[in-house]
Amino acid sequence: MGSSKEQTKFDYVLAFLLFLLFCASCLAIYSAQTTSTQYDSNFLLKQIVFYVVGIGIVGGIMIFEPDQIRKLAWYLYGFSVFVLIALHFAPSSIAPKINGAKSWFNLPGFGSFQPSEVTKVCLIIVLSHVITKHNEQHTSSTIQSDIMLLGKILLVASVPMGIIMQQPDLGTTLVLIAITVGLIFMSGITWKLLVPIFSSITLIGSTIFYLVLYAPEILEKYLHVKAYQFGRIYSWIDPANYSSGEGYHLLNSLKAIGSGMLSGKGMGINEVYIPENHTDFIFTVIAEQYGFIGATVVISFLFLLLYHITKVALLSNSQFSSYLCVGVICMIGFHVVQNIGMTIGLLPITGIPLPFISYGGSSLVGNMFAIGLIFSIRFHYKTYMFGD
């Protein structure tokens, strides 16, 4: 490789997009809390504080070059797994079960913190490192080397996935799967290997889904799964018959979004009650009070963010940096699709927030950690005078 020149450049476009998302988040949370009597807390003020903390995280990460972050990959991964294990064995006084899941630390003076939100980004970093190192060692790809790489990826990803499933937290596990699958597809592994594998997985998944709907007794007999455990799927398919239970959120979400029509009812007018609408169901607040136009604006902000990260990935001449961008795109993109999809009935309901919009310190810290990686890539962009 020839000599290189580093061009330190702050990404003003990315900063502006974050500012737009910050404004949208503040407006949505303010609209939610002014119409809710469920809580006394000032969620808007807390969200602003979380954003300030997030900016500090971005600034701290931006100091490090991508190559320096890569050297820390295994340390970050190991620490994140250690914290997940510590959470599993922590007493209920500092790690209480919330809604049946042991996913949060209750930290004095800070509140609850969900370590799996940071684990997502640590997984992106370590998988990007694993793929880059493998490709550096195997310049000519073979079936054997591709199988080896696939094995490495699955082994590394399965550890945090397994621990998080024990909490249990299906939503976060699905995000980790989305990150892993996205990086597998972009890793250079031959399609001759990927097509039969993912075709088989799709066939198995489709078969299980069919059995859940039409022959749950088979799953009860052979997999020892009880029919009531599929309540979320049944309520998703037919929410009207589960209106007093699992389908309550979905029915009210559809009513709220539909009633907003084109321009919405206006700020502070919230006629459909949805519990905790400032978190996972923040999109219903936006759609009801600001209508199709307001919802489209927010979706556009998120789309522009993903588009910009894609541009950063294409401009990068570092394989590791490009994989980081792919992982961040998969993480944020899956969050957006799943969150909005579940509020409009296209996907089953899971506890996945809308990135940068929903209230929540853990989610915002994890997302800002990821965005800090993108800022680092742009800030320490290197141009090469000569090629190899």
Automatic annotation (TrEMBL):
InterPro entries, per the entry: Cell_cycle_FtsW-rel_CS, FtsW/RodA
PROSITE patterns tied to this protein: FTSW_RODA_SPOVE
Subcellular location as annotated: Membrane
Main location group: membrane
UniProt superkingdom: Bacteria
Keywords recorded for this protein, A-Z: Cell shape, Membrane, Transmembrane, Transmembrane helix
Keyword Transmembrane helix: yes
Pfam families tied to this protein: FTSW_RODA_SPOVE
Protein name: Rod shape-determining protein RodA
